[in-house]
Amino acid sequence: MNNLPNISEILINTFNTLINQFVIFVPRVIGCFIIIAIGYLVAKGVTIVIRKVLSSIGFDRIGDKLNEIGLIKQLKTEIKLSDIVAKVVYYFILLIFLTAATETLGVDAITSMVLSLVNFIPKLIAAAVMLQIGIMISDAIKGAVVATCKSFNIPSSKLIGNIAFVFFLIITFISALGQIGIETTLLESSFILVIGGVILSFSLGYGIASKDVLSNIISSFYSRKNYREGQIIKIDDVKGVITKIDNTTVTIVNDTTTTILPLQFFQTRQVEIFN
């Protein structure tokens, strides 16, 4: 019977340990909430200042350019960069104070998790900036492609421009994911295979469908130097004055008719030029 443990002594020691730990932990919890409260006030104050400063220097004009892009309009959203930057700074400051608060508690697991979030934010900002610049460059490339296709009277210029836009946007998106730290090797390989197949199919189909247009464009490089507006010419049974020459056609006007001929005709037909 003397070997039996003293239950009352064990309970008293356990209770004393709990009280001691509670007495130690309560000040840490109070300190943690005080640090979080201070961090919240600091983050709010800095956010208000940053938003006002960025708005006053016209930083939102970049966002206005993004809002004019067709893809952003389709999403029915409005980008205001001063608000976005202010929000990012707000959460960044809050996480820094939250890190200090978790260190006060002495819980290493929570501290490590918060630190990982703090380290992740700069990468996220860099990826967002990269994506924003990529969207603007993609839209500029789209506009250039559409303008070039229209200047050569190539049909489906908007379709070609949208394809170029999506192509460069996907490249930017993959690069942004890599900046964040996400492994993109498999995604890049899949994208290359898919885009290669799409480009090959589109090139074959579009080339067959547009062979006459392309033929006219190629002919224009050889024919335009031989003909000019105001010349009197005869091609087949059509005789008249050249009133207009564009990238694919020649307009011939006489007393009775106006005839528009493809430029490729001038490579395969006999043409008489009258002085």
TrEMBL record:
- InterPro entries recorded for this chain? MSC_TM_helix, MscS_archaea/bacteria_type
Q: Give any Pfam family that matches.
A: MS_channel_1st_1
What is the superkingdom listed in this entry's lineage? Bacteria
Q: Which GO terms describe its molecular function?
A: mechanosensitive monoatomic ion channel activity
For this UniProt record, give its keywords in alphabetical order, as a comma-separated list: Membrane, Transmembrane, Transmembrane helix
Q: Does the keyword Chloroplast apply?
A: no
Its transmembrane ranges are 22-43, 88-118, 124-147, 159-178, 190-209
PANTHER family named in the record: SMALL-CONDUCTANCE MECHANOSENSITIVE CHANNEL
Task: Please give the name of this protein.
Answer: Mechanosensitive ion channel
Annotated source species: Dyadobacter frigoris
